[in-house]
Amino acid sequence: MRRGADRRTAGFPDIVILGGGAAGLGLADRLTRDGTAGVTVVEPPDGPLRPPERTWCFWDADAADVEPVVQASWSRLRIHAPDGGATTVDPHPLRYRMLRSASFERLVHARLAASPRAHVLRATPGAVRRAGDGADVRCSAADGRELTLHARLVFDSRPLREPPPARTALLRHFCGWFVRTAAGRFDPAVADLMDFRVPQPSRGLAFGHVLPLASDRALVEYTQLSRAPLTPAAYAAALSHYCRKILGLGAFTVDASEHGAVPMTDARFPRRIQPGVFRIGTAGGAPRPSTGHTFAAVRRQTRVIADALRDGRTTVPAPYGRRAPAMDAVLLRALDTGRIDGPAYVTHLFRTTPAERILRFLDGGTSLREECGIGLRGPVLPMLRTAAELPLLPRRPRPADTAATEPEEIHR
Hints:
By secondary structure, the chain is an alpha/beta fold. It has nine helices and 19 strands.
C-alpha cells in the first residue's frame, strides 16, 4: 500500500454500501432500524460526482418510513388520450407520492447519525475486490487520502459504466419544470399521470406529466420512451409547447428544472458480482423494463435484503418475478418496431381495467390470471408476432452515444 493510504480493518463494518441514492440509503436505513448489522455508506464528496437534486415518485398503500419527507400525494390520477378525452381513476388503497432526494437524504442521514452502528463516509469509491472473509473497497477521500474498507458484505448501487447486452434498449428520458403560474391553473387533488396530447415520435411514445403542488404550482414534465435523449433545446421547445398550447397555463415562471434518463431494456442485470459483493438499485435491474418505474422496486428489494440478513441469510432478489421481464421484453420490442400504438394501448387499458390492478401490474404484483386479462385487452396479434421472434434476436451492446447515464430521477 502506497504512502498516505489508510487501511481500516479493526472493528470493520459488517456491511459497506456504495452510493447514497435511493437504493443505497434506503438499504442503510432499513438495516440500521433493524439493528442487525454495522453499516458504512460511502458517498462521493461535494462536486461533479454527486448528482443534482432529483424527484422520486411511487405508489404504495403504506409509506410510513418516508412519510415525513413526502412533499405531495394524490389519491386520483388522470390519463389524457391523444384525442383529448380524459380518464380519472382512483387506485385505492394505493396513493401516488412524490418526494425530493435532498429531503430523503437528510432524513436517512439523521437516522444513521443517531445509530452507533452506522457511519457515512464522504469519499469516492473505487475498485472492490474479494479479500479473505469479505471484500476490500478502495476509496479516495476529498483530501487525497486513499482508504481501504474491509467488510463482510458489499452492496454496490453505483451506475454501470456500460449496460449489459440487450435485444431492445430504450430510454425513458425527460425534462421537467417546476412552474409557478400567475393564476390558479392546477387541481391539487389530481395528478396527470400520462397526457398523450403531446406530439408523438415515429417510434416509441411521448407524454406530459403534471404533479400539482398547489393551485398555482406544479412539476410539469415532458417524457419520451425512445432510443436516444433529445437536445436541451428540443426538451425546452416540447415543454414550452405543452405548458402554453396544451395546458394553457398563461403567464408562468420556471423556479427550477430537472432532467434525466432511465434505462428501459430487456438486458439481464447480474446482481451477484463476486462472493459477498452484490449490485442493487438501477445497477441491479430495478427499473421496470417496460416503464422505467424504479422507486417502488428499490423499496421492495431493500426490504427483502434487510429481512434476509436479519434471518442470517444473504440474498439479493430479482426486482421482479420471471413473468414481468418476459412480458416487458415483448412490449419493448413491439413499441420499438412501431407495431403497436402505445398511447392508444395505455389509454384503453386505464379505461377498461381497475387502476389499482394496473399499478400493481406495473410493480410486478399481479397474478397470472390478472396478467392474462391485461394482455387480452391489448393488440394481441402484434404482441404474438413479437413474442415469436424474440428468441431469434441476438443481444447486443447498446451504442455508446445512446447509453443511459445515472438516472437523475428514479421515477414512477
